Predict the 3D structure of the following.
Amino acid sequence: MEGGLDRDRVKLHVKKLPGQQARKWTRFHMKHTAVSTLEEGFVWARDKPALGPWCTDVDGNIILDFVSHVASAPLGYNHPRIIDLMKQFHAADPDRYAGTDFIAGYSCKPEKCSVPTPAHLHKKIVDITKQFKFDTAFFSNSGAEAVENAIKICYDYRQTDGYAFCFQGAFHGRTLGALSLNRSKTVQKLHFPQIPDVVAFPFCSCVKKCVCGWKTQSKKNKIENVLHQSLDNATGIINSEDVAYIIIEPIQGEGGYNVPRLSFIKEVYKEAKKHGIPVISDEIQSGLGRTGKWWACEHFGVKPDVITSAKGLRVGATIAKRRMFPAEKGRISSTWAEGNALASAVGWMTIDIIQKEKLMRNATRVGNYFMKRLRELMRRSRKVVDVRGKGLMVAAEFDTKRTRDHVRFTCFKRGVLLNNVGYKSIRFLPPLNVTKREVDVCVDVLGKVLRGRDE
Ligand SMILES: Cc1ncc(COP(=O)(O)O)c(C=O)c1O
């Protein structure tokens, strides 16, 4: 029994949520914490049993966590190999967690080193992006920084500070450059300065005929996509040489777990290729195996020029072919660009576990089962209006925002932790090793909440 819990038997156990200790910890935490998106109510007890998606809160309630710290904990709690790594790391490197401007190693040969270093993580990332022939990564501290560096290298590569293309519903982070590319919520941008010349195109997830505005009648009296029309030599309004990059989430996260139409993604990449415009695939939420492939863009058979990753990787990573990066020293850098030593070790181990335990296969198999069960709920309840996703990046949309908020709150009261996404949807982000039994626990609670039953 790892982590003090038996995943085949453990059950939800709720006395009261939030309990007294949780209220105390919340007050203590919030007293000096700036208001951000931090959710109150659930307070995880770091010293109590936890394993996979199961954890114990500070009042002893046993919770099923289907948020995984918004995809930052893709193995859930206390994976035994991560715990072992922590012990080894502390033995080898008791008080020097930080990477710096300098390169650090151990006195053994790099290939013989038992503790993965940032250099090992660079190699591992190149391994899982070899389908795109990438050979270089630049590390930073967060997803937003990975995006900042991705757009910087593209401006430099294209030798232009001109246009940036993004998509309606997009989310790319909260630093000034990244937030300029957001099109999901006004609150993220209000009163903040933004980079100029960002143009947003519709993100087409139309199921039958395109009605979102991606395809319209062109000046040539043909039905053509608006990206094509904008860049058309004869009738367009933007000179393609002035476009630095196109940034796109292959499956939108914050915007509502929008799965695009295959032809739409193909058309975006086709236009980009035709004009030599680099495409940045923002895989910060959809990548690292969550959708059943290393990178969600692989489902569409397209090859981006740059990938951004973070969350479960524990560092921010901007990944591409070497020629995409500036050759001159100092064009991109950070005190932390070697890669935080502890974070990089966990990132390396996370990828290794996903590989060895075949967790992408599990994400596909259990993800399909999850969506099947949610669609059964949808057939029985008019309150659920859509179920969508890929692998273990799954969302259910409700008839109103009010229903969604009620469902999420009531699920929490019963011990199932979920997260909002988009305007009226809930996202499900269980760990990649989630089992069908755990999915059943979640869906059964959801079903009872929808039926308004208390048993
Ligand atoms: C697609 C996408 N890009 C960028 C980010 C920003 O990442 P971070 O919060 O680590 O800055 C996120 C975070 O949720 C994201 O989902």
